[in-house]
Amino acid sequence: MFLSIFKAIEETGLSIWIRESTSVFSFWFILSVHAIGMGLLVGASVLIGLRILGFAPDMPIAPLKRFYRFIWVGFWIQVASGILLLIAYPTKSLTNPVFYVKLTLIGFAIASMQMLRNRVFADTSLSEATMMAKGRLFAICSLIFWVGAVTAGRLLAYTYTVLTA
Amino acid sequence: MNLPHIHLLLNHWPIIGAFVGLLLFLVAFFANSDDLKQASLAFFTLIALLAIPTYTSGDVANEVLKTSTALPKELINTHQGAALLSLIFIEITGAVALIGLWQFSRMSRPAPGPVARWNFALVLLLSIVTAGLMTVTGNTGGAIRHPEILSGHDAASTVGAIGSKIVPLTAYFVTEFSRWIWPALETLHFLGLILIVAAIGGLNLRLLGFVKDLPVAPLHRLLPWGIAGFVINIITGILFFIGMPFFYAWNPLFHLKMATVVVAGATLVSFNCSSAFRSLAKLGPGEDPPATAKVIAASSLFLWLVIIVLGRYLPLTQESLK
């Protein structure tokens, strides 16, 4: 039943256009945007994480809160470009367990970053030492989850079993 | 001009550069001049960047020559082997030199401690080995097309012979040893991209006025993470090329990507990692850099974006070339 829905999506004009158009703005363009969005989303998380873990100790922690804007801009770029890629190849992705592992890891990573934000950046009266102590676990977790999510994403191209489009 | 021409255009630079760099480095040491030391370290890094397209243009030169003349195949293999060893050593030299150079760009540079001395000794040792390997590469490469050089066949030395075994072994490891090596290298290439965007992109975004309440100096201290990402991507990139040279060798987008890597790398070296950056590292919260610095920061960001996009488009042109 699911397969027939996936198949129907694959037959829509948008899906076919993304896959088969010779326009430079179709598949490979969306893939490029997905890579840049990854750089923003994970790159900003890495910067916050490194400081919380004690690197560049002379960097004030409070202004790092601004990097959450980059995280969210990157996140929505990823959602938009990810949905377009999914429309292009629904069967290939949604029949692959690795795809769900990837989504779960992204969820965990974002949740870790949000918990870090609530514990470290919400209360402006905290000392930097306290901020680092409170954020440490979440910084480590988010970094691990991001590495996992990127790995799972890359493996999608090598682990699919059903390709109908 | 065709693609093999590029190999000829580039291939003298890394060889002569390795010797000029070494000489400059020694003069800087004996003259005890910080400016000369920086110049020599920057020079090594630039030569290391140029060595990448020099190596990758070699396969094309070989292909074209093979069709037109009978060539001593063994000599070409030896040349390629020596070239790979030279490439490995000039890249390591460049990376170590870049970290040494970054020390100079810090606002409050610590007195020459164990790190600076360690860096000096390592660059010296690596550059001597590199210069030696470059000599073999030049000799074996010259012998391919210059039979008038009578010592040509002796130049097929043991160094080149070792190197020529490394090339097929590496290709085997990358493509056939396990089907998971290639995806693993790709994942590392992506993680390297993230480190570059985080550390180099983050610093340049701050100069452009984003997250302005951060002082510049501490962001600059994170730059070695970006350099690490760059090094990871150069290593994994070279492995991709050795694994499937003809996936890349004729692809115009690949050559454009390598050219952009050289320019973006040169921007990193001369702007973010030299004492030119020291005045920018003094910028406190809320302070703006001069307009020229903003232009360079924006160019750097643009170049890295171009590299990402070109990388993602590589398979497309591959399909259309077939």
Radius of gyration of chain B, in Å, reads 21 Å
Query: Beta-sheet strand percentage of chain A?
Result: under 5%
Low-confidence stretches of chain A: none
Quaternary: heterodimer
Mean pLDDT of chain B: 89
How widely separated are the two ends of chain A? 17 Å
Rg of chain A (CA only): 19 Å
Mean pLDDT of chain A: 95
Q: Classify the secondary structure makeup of chain B into a structural class.
A: mainly alpha
Shape of chain A: elongated
Distance between termini of chain B? Answer: 22 Å
Uncertain segments of chain B are none
- DSSP, total strands of chain A: 0
Biggest sheet details of chain B: none
Count of helix runs of chain B? 14
Question: How would you describe what is shown here?
Answer:
The complex is a heterodimer of chains A (165) and B (322). Chain A is mainly α and 165 residues long. Chain A has one domain (2-159). In chain A, 77% of the residues lie in helices and 0% in strands. The radius of gyration of chain A is 19 Å and the shape is elongated. Chain B has one domain (3-321). Chain B is mainly α and 322 residues long. Chain B has helices at 3-10, 12-31, 34-56, 58-68, 73-104, 114-145, 158-177, 181-207, 216-221, 223-243, 245-248, 252-272, 278-281, 291-321. The A-B interface holds A 24, 28, 31-32, 35-36, 38-40, 42-44, 46-47, 50, 55-56, 58-60, 63-64, 66-67, 146-147, 150-151, 153-155, 157-158 and B 179-180, 183, 186-187, 190-191, 193-199, 201-202, 210-211, 213-215, 217-219, 221-222, 225, 285, 305, 308-309, 311-313, 315-316.
